Amino acid sequence: MLDMELLHHWTQTTGPSTFPGGKFGVALCTTFVELAFQHPFLMHQILSISALHLAQVKPELAGPCRLASATHQDQGLSLFQPALARLNCQTSDACFAFSALVTIHTWASLSDSSSCSPFLEEPPQDRGSVHIQWMKVHRGHRAVIRAVGPEIQAGVLAPMFSTWKGFKDCATAPLPPTEKEHLDAVAASWESSSLPASIKRTLDKALGNLRRAMYVAASSEYPVTIQEAALAWLSIVPEEFVQLIEERLPEAMLVLAYYTVLLKSTHNLWWCKGMGAMLLDIAQDVLGGEDGQWGSLLKWPIEQVLGEKEDRQGNPPS
What we know:
- By secondary structure, this protein is mainly α.
- It has two domains: about 1-120 and about 140-160, no CATH class; about 165-310.
- Helices cover about 70% and strands about 0% of the residues.
- The chain contains 19 helices and no strands.
- The protein has helices spanning about 1-20, 25-30, 30-40, 40-55, 60-85, 90-110, 115-120, 130, 135-140, 140-155, 160, 175-190, 195-220, 225-235, 240-245, 250-265, 275-285, 295-305, 310.
- The longest helix is centred in the N-terminal third of the chain and has 24 residues, at about 60-85.
- InterPro entries: Fun_TF (IPR021858), Sterol_Uptake_Regulator (IPR053157).
- Pfam families: Fungal_trans_2.
- One of its GO terms (molecular function) is DNA-binding transcription activator activity, RNA polymerase II-specific.
């Protein structure tokens, strides 16, 4: 009986509130469900996420909902892995949908304090390691795209991709003066440094992608929600940049800190509440905070995401 309630909750509440207003949000409630009836691993993923959401909106059901979520997630993964190994045109859409939903499931679990507690017990030197792994999790669907991208983009999920046509062409599109000034300062931080040229190119690409995502988020030319633009950056940054984040390269962590300004736009989504502040906190730990070597460059993202220093200290602004 709970499964029927979870599916109903998905179509009526979870799906519409996961990505409101965008084509992805529409697909969650329609195409994803249609695919799920054909591919059980996707149905398990949908029910697992719906259970996490229901646990939030109905705390009195939190216990059975979290148990149901974990059970469905385990069953979904056990069925998804062999399907991914035998990826073909019949399973490509469902495999892409499943891998795209993994991010939502992971972030929803991280935003749930009861689910986060094991991560918070990590040794101090490993602080943030688990949270940064979601960058790889989010990008998992790229493996599916690389294998059967043309089929997916021409299939039932095509509307999700059509809105992004021309995205690469806006690389030099003008940002508002404030954003441009601050991102230019970030780029300047490694221009004259002793970093290898290959690393500088990777940083430039990641920052250039952030410029594009910020432009699309603020532009009326693209039928993309600001939340979709914010999460798109995670998909398009170079693999080498993710490696630099894992290595805690200061310049890469600085780019990540600036990304949280855009990520803050997702704070009203039930499944990623507080993620911007969490990532900024991790970046500050690596970079030494406002009083460290990178303090002057951290000031802007800290103010944008966490507020003015006086407000954060509980004192009235001077």
